């Protein structure tokens, strides 16, 4: 099992898919990395040599922000918006949708389970 960017990537999957287990690397970025290193996309992680795993690890460390650093950066961006008390920051603070979605109905993912209002008939 290869360990890249602090994540154990599954050894029985194709390299392109296995790299997506790292937070911050999607299919496009994974494809770009393996093309850059001239690794065939059909190869499995277990078939990679140690040298290829080291090359992948170095490329990710050098060119991409992943895992803890990316999570920290995202959290800091949200915290900055909340500290500025701009509209987006206030929406984050209240746990409501940030990007202009309607909240009269829907928005249950952000708002949580519906709370019954006592005594409301009609």
Task: Give an overview in words.
48% of the residues lie in helices and 5% in strands. The relative contact order is 0.11. Helix 4 (67-84) packs across helix 5 (87-94). It has a two-stranded antiparallel sheet with strand order 1-2. The protein is mostly helical and 122 residues long. A hairpin with a 2-residue loop joins strand 1 (2-4) and strand 2. The protein has helices at 15-18, 27-36, 50-63, 67-84, 87-94, 108-111, and strands at 2-4, 7-9. The longest helix is centred in the middle third of the chain and has 18 residues, at 67-84. It folds into 2 domains: 2-64, Helicase, Ruva Protein, domain 3; 70-98, no CATH class.
Number of helices: 6
Query: According to CATH, what is the topology of the largest domain?
Result: Helicase, Ruva Protein, domain 3
Unreliable spans = none
**Backbone shape:** elongated
Largest sheet report = 2 strands, antiparallel
Could you tell me the radius of gyration in angstroms? 21 Å
Query: What is the domain tally?
Result: 2
What does the average pLDDT come to?
Answer: 91
Helix content: 40-55%
**Proportion of β residues?**
under 5%
What CATH architecture of the largest domain would you give?
Orthogonal Bundle
| SSE string | EEHHHHHH
Q: What's the count of strands?
A: 2
Strand order of the largest sheet: 1-2
The N- and C-terminal alpha carbons lie at a distance of 60 Å
CATH class of the largest domain: Mainly Alpha
Give me the secondary-structure category.
mainly alpha
Subunit structure: Part of the 30S ribosomal subunit. Forms a loose heterodimer with protein S19. Forms two bridges to the 50S subunit in the 70S ribosome.
Region (Disordered): 95-122
Keywords: Ribonucleoprotein, Ribosomal protein, RNA-binding, rRNA-binding, tRNA-binding
InterPro entries: Rbsml_uS13_C, Ribosomal_uS13, Ribosomal_uS13-like_H2TH, Ribosomal_uS13_bac-type, Ribosomal_uS13_CS
């Amino acid at each position: 099992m290869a360990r890249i960017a602090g994540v154990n990537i599954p050894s029985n999957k194709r390299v392109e898919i296995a790299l997506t287990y790292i937070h911050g690397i999607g299919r496009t970025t994974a494809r770009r990395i393996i093309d850059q290193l001239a690794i065939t996309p059909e190869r499995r992680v277990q078939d990679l040599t140690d040298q290829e795993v080291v090359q992948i690890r170095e490329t990710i460390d050098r060119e991409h922000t992943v895992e803890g650093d990316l999570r920290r950066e995202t959290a800091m961006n949200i915290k900055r918006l909340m500290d500025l008390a701009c509209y987006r920051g206030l929406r984050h603070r209240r746990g409501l949708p940030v990007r202009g979605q309607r909240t009269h109905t829907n928005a249950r993912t952000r708002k949580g389970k519906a709370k019954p209002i006592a005594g409301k008939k009609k």
